[in-house]
Write a structure and sequence with these properties.
The structure is a homodimer.
Chain A lengths: L5 H29 L6 H19 L2 H15 L6 H18 L2 H24 L2 H22 L5 H9 L5 H24 L15 H15 L6 E5 L5 E5 L2 E6 L6 H19 L16 H15 L3 H14 L1 H4 L4 H7 L17 H17 L7 H13 L25 H21 L2 H6 L4 H10 L9 H9 L6 H14 L4
Parallel strand pairs in A: 1-3
Antiparallel strand pairs in A: 2-3
Helix pairs in contact in A: 1-2, 1-3, 3-4, 5-6, 6-7, 8-21, 9-10, 10-11, 11-17, 12-14, 15-16, 15-17, 17-21
């Protein structure tokens, strides 16, 4: 390998500075959702806009283009997953996307999506789709423009997807979702026809907020979230914000009469947080210090929330502690009954409340509809009708209003078209990674029963976290599991879980 | 008046942007002291350094110098306290100070003061002045250099003072402090010889933290702190951070066995906060939207904490509420006894715990010693001896160690030489302003007895807050009270309070 050119180091220094400034916006964004006094929101908007503008100026500086051009012939000699090659690959991808979009377009998008979030909120509250419809139309128009500007070879949706899941294609996701659906739908049907309804009464007892917090924090700590490098706070909409090395913050919301919301929310966000906390800090500010994709990020949260957190061995360890913490609420409930309660399958209207099996149908529905709207096959005005019809077919239920239907999610109002599939990709990757972990690490259930999660966490760090964006998602998947992404591990996992619970087969 | 040149608006826009970026650092600084996970401190240091650098680049941009030069002849025609004239006067002051100091000097100062705060902390903990001495020497050397670079006509201390109290002079402060001292020392002696010791037992009872918070927040709200445009949080070292319009945050610390710490701390910080919240938001980012000086800022905190918060009429209103909130702790204590307890005068070692009378002696001591160290009349190595000797003369007590002596305050380790006198200036201004308010508003005590603070708050806003830096402190004082700053109102206030409490005369 020829010596590393000085222009590479210069490029990296520039990007680090832009990321550092971006991380300041990360703090302000977290603060906005946790602490900002109501009258401070105009100032916060101005602060965020200034930081965004300054950061954008840094990442689209012509100097970056020049350095990338300079380094082209040098990087061509490197192996494709060498540190510098991977960094340059991803820097080029973001840079080209960023410079393609004219400033006026970016500003228009920011303006429309800011207004449209407010209108979506109002429409949702009023259960009146028409309030939101003209804004959705504007967003779709802008996203079509964006796809055209960014460019694509096959499907305009690819251009949008690329922002969240670099390297993924609409065709490939369509294929794997179709295969998933083909086995998932009969599984859910079998569950519904089993005649068994699992009781969730134990989850709806008395769970004082402060004790939930104590219990949730202890569990998050035990699976590996480092509270010396992070925090847990309360917000209406839970999230994880990886601000930078040593500072990753998660949030949750407590319902004093329902156990799942905070606890599985905390495990979920802690899963995201463990990924952020175990990125390689020496690469902070460059692609190698950043998460691979939203799908891979979601695989980490789903893995800890579901694959681990809703497993029987996990509760072998935690149920006695739960009983200690909430003695009267859990009194007389067996570990088996508790395990059944947290795993009940029940088609329902709201995605974020869905169980592990039906959740993916919610995603497939959105994935199909947003493609149709982008191409124009579906008009925005026809969305409620199309949603309800498709929902009836898939879930056997008709949403009584659009709040429980096509107005439930914020994503489209934020311009996040192409975002939804990453949730089910996360479930698929989680299952495939967990299968590989079980093959390579042996008796993980024994670990969980003993409250020991360090081996799994270390394996995830070695296999995924520490690489940052060195490998694209599909390469990572191949390296870890020896196979491309498939629906099979998730189906096998769901079948193994629900067959005994619902007396199937 | 000739038309406002476009270069004026351009200059203001540039400064607003720099202030907006500075306000982002304000959020990060607040977060650092309230929420930052321990492992995030390196990242936070890097973020703060970047924001400081970018802001410094903005405020020292040659464009600002050019605009100032351009506008010189135009501004000469304006009345000196016209909006634009005042803005340009203060912009010029900061700009000239900022560009005079070479970058290398600023960086060296930042480096030394960062290290030296750590060494001060260690020295204080170990009660070992020698650990801190070489750092104090370096700081003094740098501050002498700073004074020389910035320039002064009379005393090098003037150049440092100017940063905190623009327009004030060492000679003038020396004079007013001397006059104050001449009457204060005999007053304190008379109190000590009165043979009366006021009991503070009631303050040291059981005050649960959550109830203290509730009580303190209610009082802060009642005097006029707007919690829709601010917050109250907990920190080891209480402070007020005015981030910008609509966002001003105060902190306190709770001692469950001592009432004063949190309650009077909250009133104090709320006083600062009310100033910040009532600056003119349309001038945000320019001198007219910023507080006049540290002395004037402190006058607002002291006024609410002491002049109002430790007054008998205030407790006519609040004592019944206190008794309701802490029934067993306050049971059997009369309002008079409570009022006496919160006003006990007692010479003591620690400035921040001092009563209203002896507090100012703590400041005079520091003001004298830091001048002597700056000029070289006092060597850093001789500080502990000089401190203890002077302390004995002034307070009749000898500090048993340097933690209770010359190592108690953080200011010198931060390079804050010239900062201390603003505390007593605050007390002096508070008394003089309050005297004027009583003259102009009539029966304020009647307001306080009724729990009504709106008239006083509005008067302070009209007289002080809304002007920002339109007037320098001494002009403001003259406008409000018709006289230059004097020791008399403070002495008259202290005599009126302590004569009955200690049966003097």
């Amino acid at each position: 390998m020829t010596m590393r050119p000085a222009s590479y180091d210069g490029l990296i220094a520039q990007l680090r500075e832009a990321s550092l400034l971006g991380s300041c916006a990360g703090v302000l964004g977290w603060d906005e959702r946790t602490n900002l006094p109501p009258k401070g929101s105009e100032l916060r908007g101005n602060q965020m806009a200034l930081l965004a503008r300054l950061t954008h100026e840094m990442v689209t500086s012509p100097k970056i283009g020049e350095a990338l051009a300079d380094l082209e012939s040098w990087v061509a000699q490197l192996p494709p997953d060498a540190e510098e090659a991977a960094n340059l690959r991803e820097i080029r991808r973001s840079y080209e996307r960023a410079v393609k979009l004219p400033n006026a377009f970016v500003e228009e998008m920011a303006r429309v999506t800011t207004r449209s979030q407010g209108m979506w909120q109002q429409a949702r509250q009023e259960k009146n789709f028409q309030t939101f419809q003209p804004w959705l139309e504007q967003i779709l128009k802008l996203k079509r423009e964006e796809a055209a500007i960014v460019g694509y070879s096959d499907h305009p949706y690819d251009a949008l997807l690329d922002e969240y899941e670099p390297g993924a294609s609409t065709a490939q996701i369509t294929q794997v979702f179709r295969e998933l659906s083909a086995e998932l739908v009969p599984l859910i049907a079998a569950i519904q026809q089993s005649g068994i309804t699992l009781s969730t009464d134990v989850l709806e007892g008395d769970y004082p907020t402060d004790l939930q917090q104590q219990f949730g924090m202890a569990a998050a700590k035990q699976i590996g979230f480092d509270f010396d490098a992070g925090r847990l706070d309360v917000t209406t909409h839970p999230f994880c914000s990886g601000i930078g090395p040593g500072d990753c913050r998660i949030t949750t919301r407590y319902n004093p009469r329902f156990f799942n919301e905070a606890f599985f929310g905390i495990l979920h966000e802690a899963g995201h947080g463990i990924y952020e906390q175990n990125l390689d800090a020496t690469h902070f500010g460059t692609p190698l210090g950043q998460a691979t994709s939203l799908g891979i990020h979601e695989s980490q949260s789903r893995l800890w929330e579901n694959q681990v957190g809703r497993s029987r061995p996990f509760w072998d360890h935690f149920f006695p502690k739960l009983r200690q913490m909430f003695p009267s609420t859990v009194a007389g409930v067996s570990p088996d009954a508790f395990y059944a309660a947290i795993n009940r399958v029940q088609p329902s209207f709201i995605r974020v409340e869905a169980d592990e099996a039906t959740y993916n149908l919610h995603i497939i529905l959105r994935f199909e509809l947003e493609q149709a709207m982008l191409t124009g096959d579906l008009q925005a005005s026809d969305l409620p009708g199309a949603w309800n019809e498709r929902f009836r077919t898939m879930f056997g239920l008709t949403p009584p209003d659009d709040k429980l239907g096509c107005l439930q999610d914020i994503h489209w109002s934020m311009g996040g078209i192409g975002y939804f599939p990453t949730y089910t990709l996360g479930n698929l990757y989680a299952a495939q990674f967990m299968e590989a972990a079980r093959e390579q690490l042996g008796d993980l259930d024994g670990d969980f029963r003993a409250g020991e999660f360090g081996r799994l966490k270390q394996w995830l760090t070695d296999s995924i976290h520490r690489h940052g964006q060195r490998y694209r998602a599909e390469t990572l998947c191949q390296r870890i599991s020896g196979r491309p992404l498939s629906h099979r591990p998730l189906i096998a996992y769901l079948q193994a879980k629900f067959t005994p619970l619902y007396g199937l087969r």
